[in-house]
């Protein structure tokens, strides 16, 4: 299309960032401004956008990170925030931006991947992506008598708590060496601010931050943020109650001696992968939810 300009990595341009947020609000109901103002929109999140005048009308964003696969570090790009203003759809703008992203990054990274909603499942195979099943991991659990727990609830709206979380996350170990991520603290902070604001706890006895929800008989664990490996039995004993019967992990657990069950994740969203060379994406894994763009 003529009359459009390409901009990328413009987070500090107030006018364009506002327009980006306006489009994200229109398409996804999301606004990135608080994330930006609190300092967590870092150089690893890079929007590629078409702009008409001063209005962002199409975007594909890049997240630069590392994957941990069976203990090995792999360079990766996660694509997200793919959006086009309704007035400009059907003109090939997303395809054009995707081609630019692929041209810039695909030769330098081991994996490029994204999570797509069901409306666009035919779009990404055109660029060499293929769908991969994710898996849901769960554990039947019988509460055990524990010692004194010392849990402090953190507030995703409190800047001191957010800085504490960020500092721990900046030096964290991966949530799983079987399949985890690194350099994703920016995405994590997005989740802490917008998604799990009231579900973050610091376990002082374990020196770990746990993001979880407890609902009747089930506890859902979304992340365990620690600078050392945790003893999962100790964590579970602190966050469960007498009625807990099931633990659901929203990542790929690899705790020794733990008999976890896995099944194909029943979700409308689909993980798409493009691997470079001889790199192979692992089977039967769950991408950590708090580093999913």
TrEMBL record:
It comes from the Bacteria. GO terms for molecular function: acyltransferase activity, transferring groups other than amino-acyl groups. Residues 5-144 form the N-acetyltransferase domain. CDD domains: NAT_SF. The keyword Translocase does not apply. Keywords: Acyltransferase, Transferase. The keyword Nucleotidyltransferase does not apply. Pfam families: Acetyltransf_9. PANTHER family: ACETYLTRANSFERASE. This is Acetyltransferase (GNAT) domain-containing protein.
């Amino acid at each position: 299309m003529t009359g459009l300009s390409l901009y990328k990595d413009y987070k500090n341009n107030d006018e364009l960032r506002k327009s980006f947020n306006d489009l994200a609000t229109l398409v996804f109901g999301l606004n990135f401004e608080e994330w930006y103002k609190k300092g967590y929109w870092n150089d690893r999140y890079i929007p590629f956008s078409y702009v008409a005048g001063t209005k962002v009308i199409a975007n594909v964003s890049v997240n630069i990170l590392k994957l941990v696969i069976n203990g090995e570090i792999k360079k990766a790009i996660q694509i997200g925030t793919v959006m086009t203003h309704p007035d400009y759809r059907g003109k090939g703008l997303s395809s054009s931006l995707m081609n630019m992203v692929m041209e810039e990054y695909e030769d330098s990274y081991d994996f490029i991947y994204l999570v797509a909603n069901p409306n666009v499942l035919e779009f990404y195979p055109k660029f060499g992506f293929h769908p991969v099943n994710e898996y849901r991991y769960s554990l039947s659990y019988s509460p055990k008598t524990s010692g004194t727990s010392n849990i402090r609830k953190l507030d995703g709206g409190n800047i001191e708590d957010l800085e504490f979380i960020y500092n721990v996350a900046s030096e964290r170990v991966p949530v799983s060496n079987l399949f985890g991520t690194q350099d994703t603290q920016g995405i994590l902070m997005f989740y802490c601010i917008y998604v799990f604001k009231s579900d973050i706890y610091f376990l002082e006895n374990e020196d770990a931050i746990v993001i979880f929800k407890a609902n009747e008989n089930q506890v859902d664990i979304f992340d365990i943020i620690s600078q050392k490996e945790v003893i999962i039995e100790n964590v579970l004993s602190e966050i469960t109650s007498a009625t807990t019967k099931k633990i659901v992990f929203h990542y790929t657990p690899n705790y020794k001696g733990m008999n976890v069950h896995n099944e194909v994740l029943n979700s409308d969203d689909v993980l798409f992968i493009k691997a470079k060379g001889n790199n192979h994406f692992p089977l039967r894994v769950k991408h950590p939810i708090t580093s999913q763009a």
